[in-house]
Design goal:
Elements lengths: L1 H17 L14 E2 H10 L6 H10 L5 E3 L5 E4 L20 E6 L3 H7 L9 E3 L3 H9 L4 E6 L1 H6 L4 E3 L5 E3 L7 E3 L1
Antiparallel strand pairs: 1-3, 2-3, 4-6, 5-8, 6-9, 7-8
The structure holds ligand HQG.
Length: about 180
């Protein structure tokens, strides 16, 4: 069961963040999909899913990657999109520093060019060292970078906090980055 949850959650990440067209799904400009349409189209692709499983994934997902709207008719990913959508986030005041976990092999380039968004809509940062370490380890041997978030914010850069507590910003210039 747990395995099924995980693989379904991964598939939902794919269609709600990157490739809705994979199952012929439409997201609105804020990234929302109709729950009924999502269930129908995921099933049509052979992944068994119903509202109970979807509820369980939204509730128990380790990073709370997905959220329902108020009346539970719509669902979206809370962050991590590569397709262009407007999460309608409001700027928040970041803590003094935030962490970015990356692969050690990327560090030289990051310290030359800064942190760039790559395929996603934002650079992702965390206020927790453990989270940043896990994020970095997805790409290889992790290195933790410290971002001077408060200084950036004072210099006019905006920070957003996703519904599941990931800090998001635009590209981060080299002068705000140090190695932990
Ligand atoms: C790196 C997960 C070379 C960057 C996590 C990262 C996160 C550079 C990779 C979310 C670079 C992009 C996002 C530069 C950045 N030169 N490499 N100038 N600038 N990079 O996956 O932050 O589990 O797009 O360091 O929890 O790893 O899916 O970003 O290593 O919140 O919910 O380019 O994905 O969320 O990789 O992860 P990604 P990320 P989920």
């Amino acid at each position: 069961m747990e395995k099924n949850l995980k693989s379904t959650s991964k598939f939902l990440s794919l269609v709600l963040r990157h490739k809705p067209e994979e199952i012929g799904l439409q997201l609105d400009e804020n990234g929302w999909a109709s729950v009924d349409e999502l269930i129908e189209k995921v099933n049509a692709k052979g992944n068994k899913i119903d509202i109970n499983l979807l509820n369980e994934i939204v509730e128990t997902n380790d990073k709370k990657r997905f959220a329902f709207n108020d009346d539970k008719t719509k669902i979206r990913a809370s962050q991590g999109h590569s397709i262009e959508i407007d999460l309608d986030l409001h700027p928040s005041l970041p803590p003094d520093i935030l962490y970015h976990g990356t692969a050690t092999r990327f560090v030289e380039s990051i310290l030359k060019e800064g942190l760039t968004k790559q395929q996603r809509q934002h650079v992702h940062l965390s206020d927790k060292l453990a989270t940043a370490t896990a994020v970095g380890a997805r790409h290889g041997k992790p290195t933790i970078l410290i971002v001077g978030a408060k200084q950036m914010q004072e210099d006019g850069f905006l920070f957003y906090k996703s519904e599941n507590n990931v800090w998001l910003t635009d590209n981060v210039e080299v002068k705000y980055i140090s190695k932990k």
